[in-house]
Amino acid sequence: MKTALCAIGLAISAALIPIAAQAASDQNENVPLLTLGLGGFDQNAFWASSKGRHKSVEGRIEYRFGTSLIPFLEPVTTMRPWLGADVNTDAGLWTGGGFLLDFTFGNFVVTPSVGVGLWSRGNSKDLGYPVEFRTTLEGGYRFDDQSRLTVFYSHKSNAGFSDDNHGVDSFGLSYHIPVSKLF
């Protein structure tokens, strides 16, 4: 079932490319962002079972660079690096980084991202391996000052590097602040 959801997510992302190509190129402004998020850890809106879950509150912070890594994609999307950390109320900590794609549709933005990082369990869920991959899908509204309010869904997994590959799902709300507004 998870494979089917991943395939559906990829198909939706691929379908967004031609739609995003029609968006005005000035919508893809590359400003560095500080992201603050709050949500549920080991919460799964898609499967009903809560067996074996370590539900807790998750906070996240990210720095999203303003540099587009592949400038020729800018009429459609921007690809940018990010660094971040997720911590939950059971002292679980994930730190890592990766890449994201920003698709804009007027003031609306859809951002899939992928990253790799290190997991420290604390009293939280055993994810089976210290190296964990994080995939995230966000959608929300970008304000005129380039700040954003988005909802996110993310999944962390060790991608089979260990026989124990429990994975964990999180979802919540994020606010993205242009770094230039902070200083």
Describe this structure as you would to a colleague:
The chain is mostly beta strands. The protein has one domain (2-181): Porin. It has one helix and eight strands. It has one helix spanning 2-21; strands spanning 33-41, 56-64, 78-88, 93-105, 108-120, 131-142, 148-157, 168-178. It has an eight-stranded antiparallel β-barrel with strand order 1-2-3-4-5-6-7-8. The longest helix is centred in the first third of the chain and has 20 residues, at 2-21. The termini are far apart. Mean pLDDT is 84; it is low at 1-28. InterPro entries: Lipid-A_deacylase-rel. This is Lipid A 3-O-deacylase. Residues 1-23 form the signal peptide. Keywords: Signal.
CATH class: Mainly Beta
Which regions have little confidence, pLDDT < 50, spanning 5+ residues? 1-28
Strand count, sense and barrel status of the largest sheet are: 8 strands, antiparallel, barrel
Q: How many helix segments?
A: 1
Secondary-structure class: mainly beta
Instruction: Summarize the amount of helix as a percent range.
Output: 10-25%
Give the count of structural domains: 1
Order of helices and strands: HEEEEEEEE
CATH architecture: Beta Barrel
Distance from first to last alpha carbon:
46 Å
* Average of the residue pLDDT scores: 84
Q: What's the count of strands?
A: 8
Shape: globular
Q: Roughly how many Å is the radius of gyration?
A: 16 Å
Strand order of the largest sheet: 1-2-3-4-5-6-7-8
**Strand-residue fraction?**
over 45%
